[in-house]
Design goal:
Layout lengths: L1 E3 L10 E3 L3 E4 L2 E3 L2 E2 L5 E5 L3 E4 L2 E3 L2 E2 L5 E5 L4 E4 L2 E3 L2 E2 L9 E3 L8 E4 L2 E3 L2 E3 L9 E3 L5 E4 L2 E3 L2 E3 L4 E3 L2 E3 L2 E2 L4 E2 L13 E2 L8 E2 L11 E2 L53 E11 L11 E10 L5 E11 L4 E2 L13 E2 L8 E2 L4 E9 L8 E9 L1
Parallel strand pairs: 1-4, 2-6, 3-7, 4-8, 5-9, 6-10, 7-11, 8-12, 9-13, 10-14, 11-15, 12-16, 13-17, 14-18, 15-19, 16-20, 17-21, 18-23, 19-24, 20-25, 25-26
Antiparallel strand pairs: 21-22, 27-28, 29-30, 30-35, 31-33, 31-34, 31-36, 32-35
Length: 374
């Protein structure tokens, strides 16, 4: 399901749940609420949010998800929570707020990515990422908290976590100060995240696919606790051997890393056509259409191939990349390799890159190919 551009003066801009809720492969985007801009889950029943995206929601206290559990718990699994905003009216988190109730049940956050959320510096205890009330029960495992912050007109302060969630291990927290979490087998520092993209899902279902990929060399690759791993990631793809070392341990966060397979790809043919007209305000020098043919020269099929921009100079932008577009370095373009998303051995595919030009200068453009050789 898709919940987009809804609003409420009270809790839950899109969803206010007071019963049992099981939500899978859904998108909660661009909603506005008083508390819990996306979802307010204030329930004495068990609920699940699985393989979803919670993006760019706005709340006065909580941007993304407000969780206040009573007799039963809430599980948030394999979900990306990003770009949510809170105005700092009271203590809360721009990404997730967990508050206690009279009969408190746990909130379990498993294999999630909470990143790029922001909160105004307002009430004491505000968090950019996760706010966990000291009396709340919050369990976090195999999850990433990174690039969340507080801001006002004069400063921007990293703030991924406030309160005392309990680590069940194998989490990455980019900025620890302000968070009273008791560390277990956790990582403190930069998890090396890419940029948000609406990658093409395994089953073609468009909802729930806004995700942030891991970059090559991320310490989160093949580092999760296997006992907490699900069979598939947020997009429905199998948890795999991300670093190709023969050990299929899942990655930390909502999305499995895709290995770079450029070494088994050959460029067969390329053609560039420059169109100086019609120029636009954003791209006054027109656009280039680059058509390339690539061959899989290996004996293996490559599942879920994606082209990732590694170089694009002079402020030029890839106009036809996967959403959000346009994009620069880190932008992704999913080629058409058929409904099975598989690029077969010796198969030649045609890929078109449309580059918006800000200047007349010569620019450099390169891509890597990522995917799973099988």
């Amino acid at each position: 399901s898709l919940f987009d551009n809804n609003s409420s003066f009270g809790p839950g801009g899109a969803i206010f749940n007071q019963a049992t809720m099981v939500m899978r492969r859904s998108s909660i985007r661009n909603n506005t609420g008083g508390d819990g801009g996306g979802i307010a889950n204030i329930s004495d029943h068990f609920s699940v949010i699985d393989s979803c995206d919670v993006l760019s929601n706005h709340g006065s206290i909580t941007g993304g998800i407000l969780a206040q559990q009573t007799n039963q718990g809430l599980v948030i699994n394999g979900t990306t929570i990003s770009g949510n905003f809170a105005t700092g009216a009271a203590a809360g988190g721009a990404g997730i707020s967990v508050r206690p109730a009279s009969f408190q049940a746990p909130v379990d956050i498993i294999n999630c990515t909470v990143s790029d959320n922001f909160n105004r510096i307002g009430a004491a205890g505000n968090a950019g990422g996760i706010f966990a009330d000291p009396a709340a029960i919050v369990h976090i495992s195999n999850s990433i908290l990174a690039r969340d912050f507080l801001f006002d007109r004069f400063q921007q302060i990293p703030q991924d976590c406030v309160g005392a969630p309990q680590s069940f291990g194998h989490n990455a927290i980019d900025f620890l100060p302000g968070c009273s979490i008791v560390l277990s087998t956790d990582f403190v520092g930069d998890p090396r995240l890419g940029t948000l993209a609406d990658a093409k899902p395994a089953d073609g279902i468009p909802e729930g696919n806004g995700a942030i990929p891991l970059l090559a060399g991320s310490p989160m690759i093949d580092w999760a606790d296997p006992g907490q791993c699900q069979a598939t990631d947020q997009l429905g793809f199998p948890r795999a051997d991300g670093d190709l070392n023969g050990s299929a341990t899942c990655d930390v966060g909502a999305l499995e890393f895709e290995p770079i397979v450029s070494s088994v790809i050959a460029l067969v043919r390329t053609q560039t056509v420059h169109d100086p007209k019609p120029p636009t305000r954003d791209f006054p020098a027109g656009k280039d259409t680059i058509t390339r043919q690539y061959k899989n020269k290996s004996s293996e099929q490559i599942v879920r191939p994606v082209f990732v921009v590694t170089t694009l100079t002079d402020q030029e932008m890839l106009l036809n990349c996967d959403p959000p577009a346009p994009g620069g370095v880190g932008a992704r373009l999913t080629p058409d390799v058929g409904t099975d998303l598989t690029w077969g051995p010796n198969e030649i595919i045609t890929v078109t890159f449309v580059i918006g030009l800000k200047t007349e200068a010569n620019y450099r453009f390169s891509v890597d190919v990522v995917g799973y050789p099988q």
